[in-house]
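Moderator note: this is an archived Q&A kept for reference. The question asked for a predicted structure of one protein chain; the sequence and the answer are reproduced below.
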Amino acid sequence: MNHYPLQMDCFPLLSTLDAASLREWQAAAVLVEAAQGSRVVSEGEMNDALYLVARGSVVVQKHYQQRHIEVGRVNAGELFGEWSLLSGQPVGGDVDVLQDAVFYRIPNALVMKQYWRCPTFCHALDRVCERHLVVSGLALNPVFSLLPLGLRQTIFHIGDFVGFEPGAILIAEGDHDVRFMYLLLSGEVESWLHVPGHEDESLLVSCQGVGDMIGEIALISGYPRIVTVRAKSACRALRLSNKDIHSLRLSNLNFSLALYQNTQCNMQRNMEVLSPRLGVEAARGFTVDRVPNFSELQEPEKQIAPLFE
């Protein structure tokens, strides 16, 4: 007897299936039992199924900057494996059983058949994928990861998902519109810094990937954008209002300190790139000297007007 039926009341995603599709899934699903500590899928391998967790839980960990970081947990009634199916890319992290688990494997072909023929299912699966990408990106980011887990989970609801094709400009140097910043969820971007006084010369200052912030310097400095950020590959990002980030900064000291330190480091990097062309003092004027004192940024009335008009 199957004590873990593949039914709508057990898995919210199944509520988007009609009766015929649900029967098709029930016939094709493979029930798998896995002991605590066992590996379900490994980072970098290709995935051919969607996993619905009927009992227990799994933990997702990603290799990042020579560390193994937990980026999320999936509990009974939830699912994993959707990102690699939808993107056609290798699995983005190791998935290990945290508590003895029972789950269903739904074949890729059946999932994608439903994805392309049913808009409601398509939307629901896209939202799950987006949420997982955000949870992972926030966990990898050294600033956002300092926020309490419950608070990080709310960020999924306040941001907007945006996509960029290769070569697209996310941020343009000199732009006075500094209402938003981005958290990169997939793909890679490059940041280019124009050399003042040399109209045709720009220098590559950084390459950024999953979990990196883009455009946060304007939140701290209050100046127009100082770099141009261009998509190196197809990218997806979470666009966040600087007003919301400002509120997080005022309510969480550790987050605020980390964001400030991150801005200082980025400005220092920019200064070091410019110094050989402009000299140290001139380079400082365009970079590190634009970072205000931390104490000024902790006053609620500071910075808000120029950023959010």
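Archived answer notes: The CA atoms of residues 83 and 110 lie 15 Å apart.
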